[in-house]
Write a structure and sequence with these properties.
The complex is a heterodimer of chains A (about 325) and B (about 425).
Chain A: H1 8-28, H2 33-44, E1 48-52, H3 59-70, E2 74-78, H4 85-89, E3 90-97, E4 100-107, E5 114-118, H5 125-137, E6 139-142, E7 145-148, E8 154-159, H6 172-175, E9 178-183, H7 189-198, H8 213-225, H9 230-242, E10 252-254, H10 258-274, H11 282-293, E11 298-299, H12 301-305, H13 310-320, E12 332-334
Parallel strand pairs in A: 1-8, 1-9, 2-5, 5-8
Antiparallel strand pairs in A: 3-4, 6-7, 10-11
Helix pairs in contact in A: 1-2, 1-3, 2-10, 8-10, 9-10, 9-11, 10-11, 11-13
Chain B: H1 2-50, H2 55-76, H3 83-94, H4 99-104, E1 121-123, H5 125-144, H6 163-178, H7 183-197, H8 207-243, H9 246-269, H10 276-283, H11 287-292, H12 295-312, H13 321-330, E2 401-404, E3 411-414, H14 418-428
Antiparallel strand pairs in B: 2-3
Classes of the chains: A alpha/beta (about 325), B mainly alpha (about 425).
């Protein structure tokens, strides 16, 4: 944890760069400003993202556009049931080196700054675990030899909410490694019209780099120095605790972990930086609670049978837990804002 | 500028914290207010009932109120908001993105002051005012509501005296007004009645008192009855002496004089003796002197005696049997007693049969059988036994009862033997 908070000049400069990046990405994906902001927030938090949405909504396009805008290396891995762990991490290949035969490690597609793991739930659990281990450790160990992954390293995994036959849903413990689970929704008619008018199949949108890899790393460092007020930290703690006890936690079998609290804090800082603020706020936490928590909450059978969703639990949490932890007396009622 | 912004926001935070904390204190004190209102209303009612001053009670209520305030503060303090916490609430309510909290921690600038920088809370006047208004209404009602007067010092209603005393008094008054009985005798009875009346009211209906009342009443009844009887006899004797034929007077004079003497002696020695004047007047009379009284004198004397009869007959019916008996004995009609003269007393059994002088026995017969009850004898006839030749009936012997019909419609037919028939004939002959 940095001892010195970011100053306003640094934050302003960072915000300016991020605005340019945001603008570039909004040219790739029309009508998904909130989704783009969430992706950028996740990147600034050095987190991996799980993107869920129907096919054809632009998930892959966004990741490609992000890679081009940031001028970072991107690899796309299409997960299939027959994909092997070595297909991701890389394999040692027997080669002749200096007149001798030796195994030389050939890095797999995971060795990139940005890895798009398409339909991650289609691969076998063994292959999934190879990726997830790399996500956590930011390194790959093959035949006893550890290879560091590039910095920055992001995994943007996608899931298709339909066609679930023959898939391997990610276990909850591994879902926890993703900072956000974002849902991309379909577009409205005006957006569709704009897409139709401006896009053609097979033609990728042109996007110029707006930021270098070094600048991105620097921005991630600045994000980590954004001030988190004590009251906001208290709010985050009460929200995460609320997934375990209280009226909003009814139907929750397993609540969020401390990693979720740390993820929420990091995301709040990044959101503040994105808006050019020196400190994270209640509003940042409120806005990012759902993407951070909904894939970390496990409902019990009764709640699932009743049709309850983790998103509803998070909404109930935010309604039940006040931002400031001392309740107001009944003689003072909340004024309509 | 930054200092003034800081000062503004800290001031505002303190003010809002005070408002917040005051709200908690009010909320926890309101039940005390309500309780004090109930207590005050009850206390006011009690004080008004016993007509005591409210000074001490008011002081006690004030002390209780102070204690309630202190207790409410003690309970509320853990819910109080500090100024720093108030800053966070202001951040949330005003949408300041925690700039206030960060600025307080030295990060970033204080926002510019704004005029309506308050917590998004306002007083719920209903819940604040309801308990004290109800309390005040209860106290006001306890002051205004009319109370029944204190009955502890009110005079107790007079206990009604036993009714027999009134009837005794009426009789004594009547005897007094008749001026025929000695005043001393009436006074003695009056003193007995007064002694009963002079007891305390709670003694009136005690058994001893009621029994004494009954005895006094019986004594007066008996004495007045005797006096009435004697006066009636005296009147009857004197009337007879005045009205009887001269020729009969000589025959009856001795009886009349004896009866009159006995009567006068009885009236002189009774519990209600005649007064001296009337007594001496009667003592000077005999059957012949009675006839010699003028109409006016006789009228005066007889009215006096009749007044005495009337006065002494109050409360019970006047009886004339003694008078009739005496007169009957004087006139020789015989009432069947030692003194009743010859002859048997009426309705007494005697050995000789009464010759009524009749030669024919009349029988009474009711031919209206519609009112015949079960068991009534409807008729008696003598003749050949009825025989219904159309139906076979078993052999019937005499002396048996048979019936036709059933239940209440049964008609009994008794066939008497010849001896029974002869006995019946002799009976009704």
């Amino acid at each position: 944890m940095p001892d010195i908070s970011a100053d306003s000049n640094t934050v302003n400069s960072a915000a300016t760069k991020l605005r340019r990046l945001r603008g570039a990405l909004n040219q790739v994906l029309f009508g998904q400003e909130a989704f783009v902001d969430a992706v950028l927030t996740g990147l600034l938090s050095r987190g991996h993202l799980l993107l869920e949405g129907l096919p054809g909504l632009g998930k892959t396009e966004l990741v490609k556009g992000l890679a081009r805008a940031l001028h970072i290396q991107m690899h796309r891995v299409q997960f299939t049931p027959d994909l092997l762990p070595g297909d991701i991490t890389g394999n040692p290949i027997l080669q002749e080196v200096d007149g001798r035969r030796a195994f030389v490690f050939q890095p797999g597609p995971i060795f990139a700054n940005l890895v798009l793991a398409d339909e991650i739930n289609r691969a076998s659990p063994k292959t999934q675990s190879a990726l997830l281990e790399a996500m956590q450790e930011r390194s790959v160990t093959v035949m006893g030899e550890t290879h560091q992954l590039p910095d920055p390293f992001f995994v943007l995994a996608t899931q298709n909410p339909i066609e679930l036959e023959g898939t391997y849903p990610l276990p909850e413990a591994q879902l926890d490694r993703f900072l956000f689970k974002l849902e991309i929704t379909r577009n409205s008619v005006p957006i569709l019209q704009k897409i139709v008018q401006n896009r053609q199949i097979g033609v990728e949108p042109a996007i110029e780099p707006v930021m270098s890899r070094e600048e991105l790393v620097e921005l991630c460092d600045v994000a980590s120095t954004i001030h988190l007020p004590d009251v906001v930290a208290n709010y985050i703690a009460r929200i995460v605790n609320g997934t375990h006890e209280g009226s909003a936690a009814e139907g929750v079998k397993f609540g969020a972990s401390p990693r979720a609290a740390m993820a929420l804090a990091a995301a709040a800082r990044s959101a503040a930086l994105l808006e050019g603020r020196l400190n994270a706020s209640f509003e940042d936490v409120e806005r990012l609670a759902a993407p951070v928590l909904q894939h970390r909450i496990v409902l019990d059978y009764t709640a699932r049978l009743a049709g309850k969703t983790p998103a509803e639990v998070v909404r109930a949490l935010l309604a039940a837990i006040p931002k400031q932890d001392k309740a107001a007396p009944d003689v003072l009622k909340a004024a309509k804002v | 500028m930054a200092d003034s912004d800081r000062a503004f926001w800290l001031r505002r935070a303190r003010r809002e914290a005070f408002r917040f904390n005051f709200g908690w204190w009010v909320q926890l004190f309101l039940p005390w207010v309500f309780g004090l209102g109930i207590l005050g209303a009850v206390g006011m009612l009690v004080l008004r009932t016993v007509s005591q001053g409210i000074g001490g009670f008011a002081i006690a209520a004030f002390c209780l109120a102070l204690a309630g305030m202190a207790f409410a503060w003690f309970l509320a303090r853990k819910r109080f908001l500090s100024p720093v916490e108030a800053l966070a609430r202001l951040d949330a309510d005003l949408g300041l993105h925690n700039r206030l909290s960060s600025a307080f921690q030295g990060i970033g600038d204080w926002p510019s002051p704004r005029p309506h920088a308050n917590l998004a809370l306002h007083w719920n006047l209903g819940s604040v005012l309801r308990p004290p208004l109800i309390a005040m209404a209860l106290v006001a009602a306890s002051i205004v509501i009319p109370l029944p007067k204190d009955q502890s010092n009110a005079p107790t209603p007079a206990t009604a005296s036993p009714p027999s005393w009134d009837s005794i008094q009426v009789r004594l008054d009547a005897l007094q007004n008749s001026e025929i009985v000695q005043t001393e005798a009436i006074d003695a009875l009056q003193r007995s009645l007064d002694a009963l009346r002079n007891q305390s009211a709670d003694q009136w209906y005690r058994h001893e008192s009621l029994e004494a009342s009954d005895q006094l009443r019986e004594q007066i009844d008996q004495s007045a009855g005797n006096l009435q009887e004697q006066l009636e006899i005296a009147l009857g004797v004197m009337e007879t002496a005045r009205n009887v034929e001269k020729s009969q007077l000589q025959t009856l004079a001795r009886s009349l004089d004896n009866a009159l003497d006995q009567t006068i002696r009885g009236m002189e020695l009774g519990a209600l003796p005649l007064n001296e004047q009337t007594l001496s007047q009667l003592k000077g009379l005999d059957s012949s002197k009675v006839r010699q009284l003028s109409s006016g004198e006789w009228k005066s004397l007889s009215e006096k005696l009749k007044a005495g009869v009337t006065a002494s007959s109050i409360g019970h019916s006047a009886g004339t049997k003694a008078r009739e008996a005496v007169l009957a004995s004087i006139l020789g009609q015989g009432a069947g007693d030692v003194d009743r003269g010859p002859g048997a007393a009426p309705l007494m059994l005697k050995t000789e049969k009464t010759q009524l002088g009749t030669t024919q026995t009349e029988s009474v017969q009711n031919d209206d059988l519609s009112r015949a009850a079960v068991g009534d004898l409807a008729g008696l006839s003598s003749g050949e036994p009825r025989e219904d030749k159309a139906t076979w009936t078993p052999g019937q012997s005499g002396g048996e009862n048979s019936s036709i019909g059933s239940g209440s419609e049964a008609v009994w037919d008794q066939v008497a033997t010849p001896d029974e028939q002869e006995a019946l004939r002799r009976f009704f002959r």
